[in-house]
Amino acid sequence: xxxxxxxxxxxxxxEVSAAGGRSLDVTxxxxxxxxxxxxxxxxxxxxxxxxxxxxxxxxxxxxxxxxPRVRGDLLRAVAAAIRAQAAELASLEVLDTGKPxxxxxxxxxxxxxxxxxxxxxxxKLGGGTIPVGxxxxxxxxxxxxxxxxxxxxxxxxxxxxxxxxxxxxxMGNAVVLKPxxxxxxxxxxLARLALHAGLPPGVLNVxxxxxxxxxxxxxxxxxxxxxxxxxxxxxxTIVMQLxxxxxxxxxxxxxxxxxxxxLPDADLDKxxxxxxxxxxxxxxxxxxxxxxxLVDQRIHEVVVEALVQALAKVRVGLPAEDPDLGxxxxxxxRSRVLTYIQSGLDEGLTLLAGGxxxxxxxxxxxxxxxxxxxxxxxxxxxxxxxxxxGPVLCVTPFRDLDEAVRLANATEFGLQxxxxxxxxSVALHLAHRVESGLxxxxxxxxxxxxxxxxxxxxxxxxGRERGLESLLGYTRLxxxxxxxx
Length: 485
Ligand code: ADP
What we know:
A hairpin with a 6-residue loop joins strand 4 (23-27) and strand 5 (34-39). The chain has a seven-stranded mixed beta sheet, sandwiched between helices. Strands 10-9-8-11-12-20 form a six-stranded mixed beta sheet, with helices on both faces. A three-stranded mixed beta sheet has the order 1-5-4, with no helix packed on it. It is α/β, with parallel strands linked by helices. Helix 1 packs parallel to helix 8. It has helices at 43-57, 62-65, 68-84, 86-97, 101-119, 157-170, 185-196, 211-219, 233-244, 268-280, 300-312, 331-346, 382-385, 401-408, 424-433, 467-473, and strands at residues 5-6, 9-11, 14-16, 23-27, 34-39, 129-130, 136-144, 147-151, 174-178, 204-206, 226-230, 250-253, 258-262, 290-296, 350-353, 372-375, 392-398, 416-420, 438-441, 461-462, 475-483. Bound molecules: adenosine-5'-diphosphate (ADP).
């Protein structure tokens, strides 16, 4: 194919191919066509990138010695560059992931806002003083870790990479980013764009490649000082072990199986479309997707009926048509989801909608799937407990609030929960009792904002992305005691 793009990675401010000369194919999930290649980086490339990042943060280097205000100005320039190239970035995101165009555009704007947010924080976060006694001034200093490694997933390639890269840079670290092999085009472009916006060479390095090659080389590298990982529990466990070899601290954002809890007094006109969006957006490939519906048995039938009607109106289509539901990322991912659907059928669950690819011939070559609804899903079911990462919602009725809480907490995950009720005291009661890092009341996703800390309980991980907490996570604390007696 003549118009195939051959991308390169950015290491130490230079655009390079993989040292071993190998590359990976990029496939458009909407058509199944090969559209580009990206370098298949390995140990040697990771070594070079980590060394370049080290150079950028050793004492006296331009990045380390910049005043926080100037660092902030540079990050603001990156935000402006993202906005100036929003169309290009969004089209790369669409090509790589198949997501609907408006969702891709939203993701690019979210990335720009993240840079804006952290840019404003560079000169505001500091340490404190501690009263230890007369004649002593005790100070805490917040210093950068040094080299921060980031391993990121394919579902929101740009936004999730920036969510880690931007605060790490803001606090004075250098970064080596390993984006997901399924979707690295936007991250490779980001690195070039940031360099042109004025970021010194070596401050942001991107090594594309496979998880078990470039990813494992980075996670276990003795030259990194901190590791952030977003992805599956399985791989999170592996990278944590690799980092442990060098006592490198980690921050993990893993999966979710987030429930909506719907009470009889819920405003269903608002709840139903929000619930549908929460598991259909990005084809359900979102760690915080609302994929379990716990509903009071008194309104179970009404709610299920309304959901079936709403799902019949979900537009499945090509990304350029800006549908509600685009393709999944790959054939592999779609067959994984179909295996879950089959397992639900084998368990005897009631399938109320979807369950198969759409019949529209225009969509025959992409990795599409109808939005899928299962009813009466017991907590013992795999579909209730495991993260499917596809547009599948499982309904489970409950008798009272205690049972609702038990069901909400009956998975290994604890990322997000939504409570639907008009009764403030019931909402707060549930908010206190659910084990999850975020709770929404009568909404879902309204706090998707650079300033709001995001992260999980239990196997959804630890550490917080976004917000001031994330910025603080990219610093380490030093105590300095000065005697002036
Ligand atoms: P997802 O469920 O999103 O596919 P994964 O956990 O498989 O998530 O992948 C998330 C990121 O982890 C990707 O960048 C992937 O390349 C990387 N990865 C996968 N396997 C490994 C590994 N063994 N070591 C380090 N990184 C890995």
